[in-house]
Write a structure and sequence with these properties.
By secondary structure, the protein is α/β, with parallel strands linked by helices. It has two domains: about 190 residues, Isopropylmalate Dehydrogenase; about 150 residues, Isopropylmalate Dehydrogenase, CATH 3.40.718.10. It is about 40% helix and about 20% strand. It contains twelve helices and twelve strands. The strands form two sheets. A ten-stranded mixed β-sheet has the order 2-1-3-12-11-4-5-10-8-9, with helices on both faces. The mean pLDDT is about 95.
Length: about 350
């Protein structure tokens, strides 16, 4: 069965890592006798430059007609002077909202070959395997009103934090479902000692938990969760939380691995295409130099194969190939101080393809 994939390269190193991903997907087509169709679209700064907006209706239509979406990265200093509602990041937020991508999944695992790069001690990080489940379409990032006012001669900025019971329930259920598939342990993160939205969040978690009696769950305040992630990350299996808390905690957790450039993410809807992207950003300082690390994007492809296409064998083979390349000592510039031996983007992609071909054949 043919699967249609929207490719949104975006800005900075986005086009380079997306090209790497397409090469790997084409290899998977050959090895497993699949057929993927690729539909390209603009988003972020590149869309602003061409169409005057970070997200066009044409790009949205393309994504809606596909089975999955691969995004490279958006943003860069070129567009920093634009108003907030016209900046590249608005395109990504709009895409998440329009596709109803309510669940952002960020797996945090330790690559044994890169363990020495972690700022934490070996005895703390060994065996870390955490799935952070972040609500993606509500909270402060989307609440209204969002404005500035002049009050008594002073400027006041207003952001609104709002969550409905239904929004909380659907992300909490996703967390419980993932925990049931893993180690049956869920930690719900909130700020219930201060925020009314978190008190509602905690109530909903307690209600939903009754449907998952086989999953052990607990509540944890977000400031404690931030500390516990660096103190003892192995205590966590699945962490579920609201939008802003999830944004901050997942970036903190990514540094446990020693490299922000190694981690993938997936954003899922109740129905419709999922969005898959690396979390490393657009890195405009190295754009066009063929030095970007493609591995986070390739791991995002593995998530796409698993979650959107139910191709678990293919996903496992690709992730095993990435691990093999790292175990063999191959590194891009962001992973080594020995720049003369660092592989380019295209060279690292070829190493992964070679390892994948060997494993499958």
């Amino acid at each position: 069965m043919e699967k249609r994939i929207a490719i949104l390269p975006g800005d900075g190193i986005g086009p380079e890592v997306c090209e790497a991903a397409v090469q790997v997907l084409k290899e998977i087509e050959k090895l497993y006798d699949h057929r993927f169709e690729y539909a390209y679209g603009e988003i972020g700064g590149s869309s602003i430059d061409k169409f005057g907006t970070p997200l066009t209706e044409e790009t949205l239509a393309t994504c809606r007609q596909c089975d999955a979406v691969l995004l490279g990265a958006v943003g860069g200093p070129k567009w920093d002077q634009l108003p907030g509602d016209q900046r590249p990041e608005k395109g990504l937020l709009g895409l998440r909202k329009e596709l109803q991508l309510f669940a952002n999944l960020r797996p945090v695992t330790i690559f044994d070959a890169l363990a020495e790069s972690s700022p934490l001690k070996d005895d703390i990080i060994q065996g870390v395997d955490v799935m952070i489940v972040r609500e993606l379409t509500g909270g402060l990032y989307f609440g209204e009103p969002r404005e500035r006012r002049e009050v008594a001669g002073d400027t006041v900025a207003i952001d609104t934090l709002q969550y409905s019971r239904s929004e909380i329930e659907r992300i909490v259920r996703k967390g419980f479902e993932l925990a049931r598939e893993r180690r049956k342990l869920l930690t719900s993160v909130d700020k219930a000692n201060v925020l009314e939205s978190s008190r509602l969040w905690r109530e909903v978690v307690d209600e939903v938990a009754k449907d998952y009696p086989d999953v052990d769950y607990s509540h944890m305040l977000v400031d404690n969760a931030a500390m516990q992630l660096v103190r003892n990350p192995r205590q966590f299996d699945v962490m579920v939380t609201e939008n802003m808390f999830g944004d901050i905690l997942s970036d903190e957790a990514s540094m446990i691995t020693g490299s922000l450039g190694m981690l993938p993410s997936s954003s899922l809807s109740a129905e419709g295409p999922g969005l898959f992207e690396p979390i490393h950003g657009s890195a405009p300082d190295i754009a066009g130099q063929n030095s970007a690390n493609p591995l986070a994007t390739l791991s995002s492809i593995a998530l796409m194969l698993a979650y959107s296409f139910s191709m678990q064998d293919e996903a496992n083979a690709l992730q095993d190939a990435i691990n093999q390349v790292l175990n063999d000592g191959y590194r891009t510039a962001d992973l080594t101080n020995e720049r003369e031996t660092a592989l380019s983007t295209t060279e690292m992609t070829k190493k992964v393809i070679d390892a994948l071909r060997t494993k499958v054949q």
